[in-house]
Every structure is written in structure tokens, then in C-alpha cells.
Amino acid sequence: MTRRDLKFLFVIAGLVVVVGLAIGYIAGTLSRSEAPRTTEPGAARQGWHPAEAVTDGYPGYQELYVNDYADLLDPAAEGRIRGKLKSLFRSTDIEMTVLTIDSMARYGHAGAIEPFATGLFNQWGIGDAKRNDGVLVLVAADDRKMRIELGAGFSRSWDARMQRVIDTGFLPHFRDDAYQTGIETGVDATIFELTGALPEHQDLGTVQRGWAWIWYKMRAIGDWIWAGLLVPAVGGWLGLRRYLRNRPRSCSACGTMMERLDEAADDEFLDDGQQTEEFVKSVDYDVWSCGSCGHMDIHGYKSWFSGHGNCPQCAYRTMKTETTVLVSATTSSTGRKRIDYDCRHCGYHNQVFRVIPRKTKSSGSGGGSFGGGSSSGGGASGSW
User: Fold this and answer.
1) Is residue 132 within 8 Å of residue 374, measured between CB atoms?
2) Which residues contact 339 (CB under 8 A, 6 or more apart)?
3) Which of 306, 321, 345 delimits the end of a domain?
4) Is the pLDDT of residue 195 over 90?
5) Residue 175 burial (CB count, 10 A)
6) What domain range is 122 assigned to?
7) Taking phi first (over 0 means left), then psi (-120 to 50 degrees means alpha), and beta for anything else, what does residue 232 get?
8) Does pLDDT of 366 surpass 80?
9) Under 8 Å between Cβ of 287 and 297
10) Quick one: pLDDT band at residue 256, thresholds 50, 70, 90?
């Protein structure tokens, strides 16, 4: 990227930041909420513990949104969290659930929380079976460990984002044994990472609160407004992306202007994995050559709509995931599905079978069954 490119980008970014701060500050000031804060409950409540089923070494669920088996939340907090997760599902179709337990040892598990969370996630079938976009927030209070487990549809880049949520949203409160505050704050932060907006904005800074207010007001107006906003925004982004990809560039070694090779010629400089990525159209590579010193630059551009993910064996974006429903779930029996993972480059193959939970009618408190999603172990963990 040349100095001219950098200057252009800095000017645009500066204007966007200034205008965004101004709009957010004005809207945040006008929409300031004076709602009182909820006080933190004291010791754990006595005498009320939900009946908890145990299936194949994992706790069962009584509802889709909040299962507080460790009794860390009072009824009002459970209701607030349930309302936020229901709203998240209505607006995005993302199934997110919160589970608290006393200890993993109660279910016969000893060791790290990661395999327990992945197994539990797949046992419950959290998320849509095709999109695999479910989210599990698991808190093991006596173990002093927690995990945000993500469905297989999330890329690995989401792991770092969830780790940030755990480190800044959950753990600071958990270290003070303020579990209810930590869970509510962490759930808000998780939803923010998933959607770009918090479910409530009275505790935000003025600018953030303003933009959250604008977000919800725009949603209330109707979906048509997004066309007026997104079309020029996407067009501008695509134009900028095209410019940055095709712009002339100088050699980092000698300063001579480089030449981009055509698609036929650049294959000579790509390895087998990169050529496979181009063949399956998951990544498109540009090869720039310096005619003076022979220096080569290779730049990869991921396809937005590729059905391929990164292979755990060769790391190239050449693995296809296919889900086949073998037996459909009904209201009286569970179903069964097969998930096939196949890499077009290295030949990696893995096949797993999952139980599709029995279909049940949902109740007002969030009863019912999950959508049959699965996790391949993505997410983040924390301890305190």
C-alpha cells in the first residue's frame, strides 16, 4: 500500500469517525435512560433447584434459553436474560443458551471444559442444523471455569472475539463471585459481538448508547430502510476493495513498478493447496512480479460465498461440510443425521453422527427443542 493510499484511507476514516462520534453523541444524549440498576443478589438462594435430567453424561435442558442448575441467578435475572435471548432469536435466528452447573464431575467428567462443552453442545443440538450457528454459554461454578462454545458455522476468527468477551465481560465479575452480574454483562457482550448492538443501552457510554438507540429505531421503521443505507455502503466498500486490489504497486525490494500476472500464468507460482483453493473458488490469488529484480508477491482474497472451510489437517480452505438427515425427528422420537467433512486438497475425511432432538411444542418460558446444530470445538474458555 502506497503512502498515497494510506493518506486517502486515513482521511476517509477520520471523516467517518468524526461524523459517527457526533451523531452517536447527539443521539445518546437525547436517548439517555434513567432506568435504575438491579442490585446484585447475595448468597445463593436456598430451597429452589430445578429438576435436572442427566442424559449420556450430560445435563438435560428444561428450556431453550436459561438452565440455571447452579442457582446463580434470581428469577428476575433469568427473565431478563431469557427475554434478550428470545429477542436475539427473533431478529437473527441465532439460538443462544445459558447453562450453569455446579461441577462437571457431577456428570462423570474430569479434566478440561472444552470437550465437555463440545459434547454437551452436540448432545443438545444447539443452533440451526444447516447453518450451525448456535452459541452455548456454559458456567461451571465450583470448577471456576466457563466456556463459550460456538457452532461449526462460525469461522475460527470468532474464537478470539469470544475470548475477548470472556476476559472483559464475564471474568472480572466472576473473580468477585458476582456471578449474576457477570452472566448478565457477559451475555450482553456476547450478543453485541454477534449482532453489533447491545440488547440494552442505558449503561453504555453516550456515543455507544446513541448508536444502539439509532439501531433499534431503524429496525422499528422497517426493513426497507436497509436498502437505502446498505446499497451505497456496500457499493462503496466493493469499489474501495477493488481499487486496493488492482491498484499499481511498487516492488518492496527495489522500488520498481510490478506487474500482475494473468490467471493462466500465476498458477506456476502457487503451491498445490493454493491451486486447489482457486479450483474450488474458495480463495482467488493474485501474483505480482517485478521485472527488474524478480521479486514475487502473492495475495489471497477469500470468497464471501464459498461453501468450503479450513481443513484441520492441511489448513487450506478446501474442506466441504455436508449434512445428511438419516432419520427425521418427530414429536415422539429423536432423529439422526450424518455430517461428512471432506478436503479436496489433502483427502482428509471425517464422518460423525449426531442425534437430532425430538421435536416438541415450545412453551412461554422457552421450552421446546433446539434446531439440531453441531459444534466442531470452536469458541473460547476462561477460569478464575
Assistant:
1) yes
2) 321, 322, 323, 324, 351, 352, 353, 354, 374
3) 306
4) no
5) 11
6) 39-205
7) alpha
8) no
9) yes
10) very high
